[in-house]
Specification:
Elements: H1 3-17, H2 24-40, H3 45-59, H4 62-65, H5 70-85, E1 101-107, H6 113-126, E2 131-136, H7 143-154, E3 158-159, H8 167-181, E4 185-190, H9 198-211, E5 215-221, H10 226-239, E6 243-247, H11 256-265, E7 269-273, E8 281-283, H12 286-293, H13 299-309, H14 312-324, H15 329-341, H16 345-350, H17 368-377, H18 381-385, H19 392-402, H20 406-426, H21 432-439
Parallel strand pairs: 1-4, 1-5, 2-3, 2-4, 5-6, 6-7
Antiparallel strand pairs: 7-8
Helix pairs in contact: 1-2, 1-5, 2-3, 3-5, 5-12, 6-7, 8-9, 10-11, 15-17, 17-19, 19-20
Length: 445
C-alpha cells in the first residue's frame, strides 16, 4: 500500500536531513521532490498544487528554519497536512435513532460493491446489529447469487425477489420486510454502472427516492488512480454521496485516489478494503494513513487488530498460563491462528514504526506459520505438553511426519523456548505493566 509514494517521500526528506540549517531555497528544492512524488502517485494536480503551497508556506516559517532539527519539523508538517488532506479525522457511519439505518452502496462495475456491502454488514453484525442485505443488482450475471453466498458466509439474510422485478420495487419491498422482521440496518447493493449511462443513473436516483437512505457510500477502486476521483465527482454530483469506501488498498496502489477524493468531492473516505476476506475492512483514519505513507507505522491499528483477535477470556487464560509457566506447544500453535486472524504478516509488520522501509525488498513467506503448525501437529500429545522430551530420534520422526527438515524442527523448538523465556520476564513485577498493555486493559494480576 503506497510503497512507491513512501519511498519517494523518504528520498525527498533525506535531502533535508543532510543539512543542519535550512534556507528557503533548500525548502523549495525539497518541495519540488515531494511535488513530483505526489504527481507520480497519480494525485490530482490541483490537490498537489494547493498541498505544496500550504506545506511550503509553513516550512519557511521561523519555527522550521531556526529549528535545531528542521528535517523533523518538515516531516511533522507534511504529516499534519496529509492528514488534513484526507479528511483530518475519522468519519463514522451515521446510525439512525429510528431504525432501520439504510445504507445504499453505489459505484462502477467491478469496484467491489457486493463484497463490501457484505463486509460492512458483517462488521455491524459483530457489533450487535441485525443487518439485512438487499439484492438490487438484476443486471450482472450471478450478482444476486454472489450476494447470497456472501450473506450465508456471514450469517446475514439476503432479500431477493423473482427474476425480472424492477430494482426500485425490490428496494421498496425490502424496506417493508426489514420493518416486519426487526432489521435495524439495511444494506442495498445496487448494480454497477458507468457514470455516463443516463438510464442506469436515473434508476439509481429512483432507488434513492424509494428508500431515502441515511448513507450513500460510493465504492471506489483504489487501483484505478486518478480516474477514481473523476468517478467520485460524477456520482457525488448526481446523488450527493455521504462517503467513500476505498477498495483494493491492499494491492499495488499508487495512492492518488485516497489522497485526492476528499479534496475533489468534499466527502470523506469512511472505510477501506484491505484484502479479499470478508473481515478485511477497516474504518479509515486519515492520521494513521498519513503515518503509514510516511513510514511511521500504525501502532494503534495494530493494537486494535490484536484486541479483535483476542477476547478478554482468551487474554486472561493466556496470562494465567504465562504466569504459572504452563504455556506449552499447544498454546504456541494456537497463537499462530490468532496471528492469521489479524491479517497478512507483511501488513502487520508494516504497522511497526521503522520497519516498513526495511521491508520493501524482503519476501515474507506467509506459509511459514502453516509449516510450523504442521510440525507441532506431528507431535504426540505428550510431546506438545513436554517438549523437553524431544530427543534426536523424536525430532527426526516429527520432521519426516510433517514434511520438514530436522533443522526446521530444531528452529521451532528454539523459538518456543525463547518465547517462554520472554514470557517469564514479562510476568515478573517489572513486566506486569507491559503485559497488561499487550493482553488488554481488563486483565487482572
Amino acid at each position: 500500500m503506497f510503497q512507491s509514494l513512501s519511498d519517494k517521500l523518504e528520498a525527498a526528506f533525506k535531502k533535508f536531513k543532510n543539512k543542519g540549517k535550512l534556507t528557503e531555497s533548500d525548502v523549495k528544492e525539497g518541495m519540488r521532490e515531494i511535488k513530483l512524488a505526489l504527481l507520480e502517485a497519480d494525485v490530482n494536480f490541483k490537490v498537489v498544487k494547493e498541498f505544496i503551497a500550504t506545506v511550503s508556506a509553513r516550512c519557511v516559517g521561523a519555527d522550521v528554519l531556526e529549528s535545531l532539527v528542521p528535517s523533523q519539523q518538515i516531516v511533522k508538517i507534511v504529516n499534519e497536512e496529509l492528514t488534513a488532506l484526507m479528511g483530518g479525522s475519522v468519519s463514522k457511519l451515521q446510525i439512525s435513532s429510528r431504525p432501520p439505518t439504510v445504507i445504499m452502496m453505489v459505484g462502477l462495475q467491478g469496484a467491489g460493491k457486493t463484497t463490501h456491502c457484505g463486509k460492512l454488514a458483517g462488521m455491524y453484525k459483530a457489533k450487535g446489529k441485525r443487518p439485512l442485505l438487499v439484492a438490487c443488482d438484476i443486471y450482472r450475471p450471478a450478482a444476486i447469487k454472489q450476494l447470497q453466498v456472501v450473506g450465508e458466509s456471514l450469517g446475514v439474510p439476503v432479500f431477493t425477489m423473482p427474476e425480472g422485478t424492477d430494482p426500485v420495487e425490490i428496494a421498496k419491498k425490502a424496506m417493508e420486510h426489514a420493518d416486519r422482521h426487526g432489521h435495524d440496518m439495511v444494506f442495498v447493493d445496487t448494480a454497477g454502472r458507468l457514470h455516463i449511462d443516463e438510464k442506469m443513473m436515473d434508476e439509481i436516483k429512483n432507488i434513492k427516492e424509494a428508500v431515502n437512505p441515511h448513507e450513500i457510500l460510493l465504492v471506489v477502486d483504489a487501483m484505478t488512480g486518478q480516474d477514481a476521483v473523476n468517478v467520485a465527482k460524477a456520482f457525488n454530483d448526481l446523488l450527493d454521496v455521504t462517503g467513500v469506501v476505498m477498495s483494493k488498498l491492499d494491492g499495488d496502489t499508487r495512492g492518488g485516489a485516497a489522497l485526492s477524493v476528499k479534496y475533489v468531492t468534499g466527502k470523506p473516505i469512511k472505510f477501506i478494503g484491505t484484502g479479499e476476506k470478508l473481515d478485511a475492512i477497516e474504518p479509515f483514519y486519515p492520521d494513521r494513513m498519513a503515518q503509514r505513507i510516511l513510514g511511521m507505522g500504525d501502532v494503534l491499528s495494530l493494537i486494535e487488530k490484536a484486541e479483535a483477535a483476542y477476547d478478554d477470556k482468551q487474554a486472561e487464560a493466556l496470562e494465567k498460563k504465562m504466569r504459572d509457566q504452563t504455556f506449552d506447544l499447544n498454546d504456541y500453535m494456537e497463537q499462530f491462528d490468532q496471528i492469521k486472524k489479524m491479517g497478512s504478516m507483511e501488513q502487520l509488520l508494516s504497522m511497526i514504526p521503522g520497519l516498513s522501509a526495511n521491508l520493501k525488498d524482503v519476501q515474507i513467506d506467509e506459509r511459514q506459520l502453516d509449516r510450523m503448525k504442521a510440525i507441532i501437529q506431528s507431535m504426540t500429545p505428550q510431546e506438545r505438553r513436554k517438549p523437553e522430551i524431544l530427543n534426536a530420534t523424536r525430532r527426526k520422526r516429527i520432521a519426516d511426519g510433517s514434511g520438514n527438515t530436522v533443522q526446521a524442527v530444531n528452529q521451532l523448538i528454539k523459538q518456543f523456548e525463547q518465547t517462554k523465556k520472554m514470557m517469564k520476564e514479562l510476568t515478573g513485577a517489572k513486566g506486569n505493566k507491559r503485559l497488561r498493555k499487550m493482553l488488554g486493559k481488563n486483565v487482572k494480576f
